Amino acid sequence: MNPWDKTVGDDSKTVSLCLLVPAVLSIAAAWSVRRWWSNTLPLHTHAVSRRRKLNPAAGRRPPALSLIKGPVTKLEDTSAMPSGRRNISRTSSNRPPPPPPPNVLLNDDNHKSKSYGHAADSTSRVISPKHIPIPSIPQDGNFVFEINMFIFTGMTSFLQFLHLYRTVWWLPQSYTRYTMNFYLIDPYLVGFIATILGRRLVYCALSRILMSWSPSTLWPILQQLLRLILLALVLASLVWCAYHIMQNHPIVNIFYLCYPISVYFILFGLSISPFFDVTSLPPITKEECKGRTVIVKPLHNCSNSPHAIREEVEVLKTDFNNRMKQILFSSVLNAYYAGFVPCCFAQSFLYYDVYWATQHLAFVWLGCFTMYIVHCYPVKYCDVLHRAALHLGRWARIEGRTSHIPTHIWADSTLWHQGALVKHCKELYKAEGISNAAEPGNQTHARFYAVFNNPSVLLCSLLGLQLSLVIMQIVILVRSSEWYHVISLALLLFANYYTLFKLSRDYLVCWKVYKAEQMIQDKIGG
């Protein structure tokens, strides 16, 4: 090959490469200049004014914006850049205006007007609570319960007389062969106490017989007639016993017998039903029910009406309070006549252990109280209150009030969803229940939800009280050496074990059911 041809070929390649590089650089420079020019247009040019969207409310073109020379404040347009330029490369006249930034304060009047529009939409997000049915748990009837209560109170009254009139019959020099000085016990006092403690058992027995032989349409009339007849017989028996008691005791002691009567009139008035029946309560008149009489029944109706939910809660709350009033009065009355009255009518020359008699009185009252609680508040009844509490819901007050949080004005006709923020009485509240019909700041609704949102907590507290009572009696029994102490504590423990068993069973069932129900509520609420 000729060396000259090789040299010419190499020179041609070099010349081509030198011509291609400047062409590429010139194209890149032109594209960069064009891009820089489109992004550096001045704010007062006509291109910016043509790109801006006209305000339809004003009906004319808005004035041109002036250059911002200082820092951006809360009420200024934050879309303008500090360098005096406005970024319009990504805006479109067809898009809606962007929402205000978080540092822009909302007008309170406009905000309130918007909240009314969104209040109607809040009911669409409300989820109805899901209820799990409680399994069938055996429960003592009224007649069986009154038998157990009469046996318990009669036994405790006998034990108190044993504490007072015991003897040392086992000694060889003893002048008596009996364990008690029966001649010191007033038989009319025993008759008075037995009449008070056994009145409900007699009423339940006669009412059971009457209902089995009469048509159901006549039951209310026959029950009322039976109460009046029994009341006359009971009062006649009490007056006759009190007359004979006055023959052997000072007149002042008669006030000990009549003291509970004044308490009864204060709590129940002139109603006869609470004197004979612990669960059959008198009708309740409510102003919210337009003057009609509402018969208290432990029933629940799943409703989406806030007024109906609050009305149901009000009726159930009144029924619960009436039952608690009956429980407290009945337990105190039984303990008073079974444990306190025998000590009041003891002879002045009689010596007895005051500390042990007082301790026995406390054990009788606690035992009666837990027995009445288990009977008057069965699991089915607590479940009715629990379901009403789930529909009622709860409001939690928010302390740190901020004006930029979107809230609604609370309305009594709206069923609020979980997490809703409302304003009521110049306070801010947040809904915590899955369904909220309660009134914010209403302490009655708050207490009802706190107690019955999970009834297993209440049953756990009662179980702890009964377990503590049993453990205390076992400890005292182990440390006792007197024969009448052993007999007294053994009989009390025998009765308290039965109540402990029923409370343990009810608590375990409720704990399992409400734990599963809470998991379902969290799943559908989340």
Automatic annotation (TrEMBL):
Membrane topology term: Multi-pass membrane protein
GO cellular component, one term: membrane
Residues annotated as transmembrane: 14-33, 143-162, 182-204, 225-245, 251-276, 327-350, 356-377, 457-477, 483-501
InterPro entries: Uncharacterised_TMEM39
Alphabetically ordered keywords of this record: Membrane, Transmembrane, Transmembrane helix
Domain of life: Eukaryota
A family per Pfam: Tmp39
Span list, region Disordered: 49-124
Subcellular location: Membrane
Similarity comment text for this entry: Belongs to the TMEM39 family.
Stored PANTHER family: FI21814P1
Protein name: Transmembrane protein 39A
Organism: Diploptera punctata
Organism classification: Eukaryota, Metazoa, Ecdysozoa, Arthropoda, Hexapoda
